[in-house]
Amino acid sequence: MLLTLHIIKIESGDYRAHVMEGAQHLGDYETTRIADAIRLAAENPLPDLAGVHLWYEHVSVGSVTVGNMRSDSEALARRLVELHALFKN
Questions:
Q1: Are 10 and 18 in contact (CB under 8 A)?
Q2: What stretches of the chain adopt beta strand conformation (E)?
Q3: Using one digit for the tens of pLDDT, what is the confidence trace for 22-75?
Q4: H-helix or E-strand containing 77?
Q5: Which of 20, 53, 66, 88 is the most exposed place for a label (fewest CB within 10 A)?
């Protein structure tokens, strides 16, 4: 199974993360940092969870494992922000 984590910036220091399985909304939460949203999503993985499609607004770093989300959340967050800046409207 692959979930989707979609992080949206509400304002500086305020992010909302949505967790989806296909079209089914599994939950959401708010954090103060993108890396924290990534780490929170990796805290309680489902037994058959293969990975997560990781989005920040309109950009994605692709599908990542839960292990990478735990160990590399800062690097994943940086990459999302870099991609976001490249494709900003």
A1: no
A2: 2-11, 14-21, 24-31, 51-56, 59-64
A3: 999 998 999 999 999 999 999 876 778 889 999 999 999 999 999 999 999 999
A4: helix 73-86
A5: 88
